[in-house]
Amino acid sequence: MTAQNRPDTRPEIVAIGGMADWMLAELRLRYRVHDLAAATDRTGLLAQAAQARAAVTTGAVGIEADTVRRLPQLAMLACFGTGYDKVDRAALAQRGIALSNTPGVVATCVADHAMGLLIALVRRIAHADRLAHAGVWGKPVIGLTTRVSGKRLGILGLGDIGVRVAQRAAGFEMPIGYHNRQPRAGVAHSYFGSVRELAEWADALVVACPGGAATRHLVDAAVLDALGPHGVLVNVARGSVVDESALVTALAAGRLGGAALDVFDQEPGIPAALAGFDNVVLTPHLAGSTRETWRDAFDLMCANLAAFLAGEPLPTPVR
Prior knowledge:
Elements: E1 12-15, H1 21-30, E2 32-35, H2 42-48, E3 54-58, H3 65-69, E4 76-80, H4 89-95, E5 98-100, H5 107-122, H6 125-133, H7 139-142, E6 153-156, H8 160-170, E7 176-179, E8 190-191, H9 195-201, E9 204-207, H10 221-227, E10 232-235, H11 244-252, E11 258-261, H12 272-275, E12 280-282, H13 291-309
Parallel strand pairs: 1-2, 1-3, 3-4, 4-5, 6-7, 6-9, 7-8, 9-10, 10-11, 11-12
Helix pairs in contact: 5-8, 9-10
């Protein structure tokens, strides 16, 4: 039998969507990949993939219950990314389908981005850049800004990202406070029992907690008012954590000093009202989008996939 006629015995997997071209190319070296995102006949492709036991997706794409139903042999979903908000976990649980994600690998770059957003906002770098590109010497327009060094930094969610934000903030000699559901053992930073108490103390509040129903609109009008007209908000977590309507109202009324956001409630949409403020910095959910982070996250996703297909424990299962 020639190599050309030899049957392809590589495992089948389904790529639900969101994978970069280079990721798909690497996956195709190891597996027979059914690319659902590129399919012109979704129903037909799912029928062809009926024997696939594993699938890959991204946190932004997830998987719907109908797709799970149409993959009767599916037993494992490997998610590229820390978040899995758009994964129908109930549909997976009903069938006992394992789920993995890629925690930890984005923390360094997201923390870098959080500090970059804070500095860009407080020193009005983004506004100055827009003026400079328009040929305007914006110094008289911008006026005096505020330094970051020495300001009180509140962190909502002292997990992997929050810890790294605190490490970077220490280099700016910033006193650090935080709020979690419970105090974190071995941490010297000041703990606050509520988000509002933290916001009342802080000059800047960085949101770095998980998304989901439990934290939806945790940063509401009362928290924004507690930050006050000289306080600023930075969100690198999930857009759902911040009440965007309350945020727009607070900014318009001058009750909040400014906001820097990398995430939004209805992505990929960005509320038009937010784009109209000079004291708002916006980036399109790219805090973790560096070459290094994507490489590390993809490798970890593949490690979970390979472990499942080899009958071994998943390196990073979602419990």
